[in-house]
Structure formats: C-alpha cells, structure tokens
Amino acid sequence: MTPRKIIIDTDPGQDDAVAILVALASPEEIDILGITCVAGNVPLDLTSRNARIVCELAGKRAVKIFAGCDRPLGRDLVTAEHVHGKTGLDGPDLPEPTMSLAEGHAVDFIIDTLRENAPGTVTLCPLGPLTNIATALQKAPDIADRIAKIVLMGGGYFEGGNITPTAEFNIYVDPQAADIVFKSGAPIVVMPLDVTHKALVTKARNDAFRAIGSPVGIAVAEMTDFFERFDKEKYGSDGAPLHDPCVTAYLINPDLFSGRHINVEIETQSELTMGMTVADWWGVTDRAPNATFMNDLDADGFFALLTERLARL
Ligand code: RIB
Ligand code: CA
Predict the structure, then answer these.
(1) Closest-lying ligand to the alpha carbon of 153?
(2) Pairing mode, if any, of strands 4-10 and 30-37?
C-alpha cells in the first residue's frame, strides 16, 4: 500500500498533538510531507513551538515544520488559552524544542508542494483555522485542482457551536478563509463537532493511553487530563472530545466514520451566526453538495486505533 502524501496544517493544541503523533506513528499509511502551523488555539509563535515539541517527543526531528499565517484574513485573532492553557500544550512538562523551523512561509510550502507533486496525490489535513489553506488558494488558484482531498476538523450542525452558540472554533476564527476553502471545488471531508463530540476520552480510554507507559503515552494522558477539564465542566460529559485525531484516524481507516455528502456554506456576514457551517443535511436547498460531513464514528474502534498507534512511538 502506497502511503498517502499529506500536509498537516495545525494550531497545536493538545488534540492537534495527538493527531500529529498518530500520523507520525503510521508511515505505512501516511507520508507527512510537512507540517504547517497557523495561529489559532494560541498565537503562531506558540503553535510553531508546540508542533516542534510534539515531533521531538515522537523522535521525528526530520519533519519539516513551517510557520504560516499569524492572524485571520479579515478579523482579529481569537485564541483558546481557556481550553488549552497559556502555552497551548499545557499538561505534560515537555522540553523546549531544539529543532528549527524550516525555511520559508507555510503558504509557499503548500503551494510549491502541490505544484511539485502530481495532481490528485497530496491531501491537506487542516486541524485549525483555515487561514493558511485559503491564503494559498488566493495566491495560487491553480492549486485547487491539484488537491487530492481536504480532510479537516471544523464546523458543526446538530451540535451547534463551541465558541459561540452557532460556530465551532476553527471556522469561527477565520470564517472568510473557511468560505474560500469550502468554495474551492476541492473534495472536502469534514470532521465537525457532530462526530468529534462522540470521540470522548473517558477515564478508561485515557488510562489506556497512560498504560502504554512510554513518554508518548504518558504525555498524551497528561495532555488529556489538562484538556478535558473545560469540556467536562461545560458539557457534563465523562470525557473530552478528541477532535483533531478524527482527521488522522480517517486517513488510516475511513470506515470508522459515516456521514453524508451535502452542501455546506459558511456564514461570513452576520455577527450573530458568524462562522456557522450551514450544513444542508436534509437536502432542503438546491445548493450543490461540496463536502462529506461526518456525523458518526465507531468510538471504540477509534480509540483502539489511537492506542495501538501511539504505542508504536
Ligand atoms: O473546535 C475544536 C478545534 O479547535 C480543534 O481543532 C482544537 O484544536 C481547536 O483548534
Ligand atoms: Ca486544532
């Protein structure tokens, strides 16, 4: 099986970290051409620091990591330290990174990589606000037809929002970018809150991460111990949703997930519903389907996959 070439676009964030670790542990299925960092959960200097910390934790210092956009296309940056802590990777006590960032801007890396690889061979995996992806599409419209697939975490319909009543954080931070991406014509798979809120890290599941016993397993358990307090208090759930690893798990075993190919448009005008993913789940409009919008997963299978892969590092 030829591994799928991907670029991970990310704003680590503990859940981004788990998504990156699982991808790094899966070279038979996933060939990470590079990691591009964007401002989101925390500012860019921290997301680009955290991505390096995660790769060093996994012993993968050869991964190319690029810094990208430090603010949304047309709005002030909104961050989420209240969820992820002031560093964005609170929980484990991990050393400062020693590896350097790759030369060049993340947006140019995305453009160059898509142009240098055959059309339809590179998958983009955004785990944060879509600023880098949209900027690349604006700067080089020709890349839209070269993207094999965009598999992103973002949005919500039945679950509503998590940063406002109607908007999920990644889309809310940069709704203009999301609008560009969802109108790009590239094939899109969406992992919205509707599915990620079913991927709850219960105590038993986090204990399984900790029982791996490796520095990676222990660090992931400590990340989750920190990260989950916000969602457990807010939703009264018995664990935090592991949002971003749904993207990586889909790349490895898409059969874990189910959803519908529907039209999804982004609210970019009303401040009341800014960043809402208007998902035509029931097909009540004549708007053309543009995204596969997931709403269910095999949660036990998902966590079994994550635990097995994390144990490989
Ligand atoms: O709303 C959840 C998403 O926002 C996740 O990607 C999390 O890391 C934050 O970026
Ligand atoms: Ca993220």
Answers:
(1) 1
(2) parallel
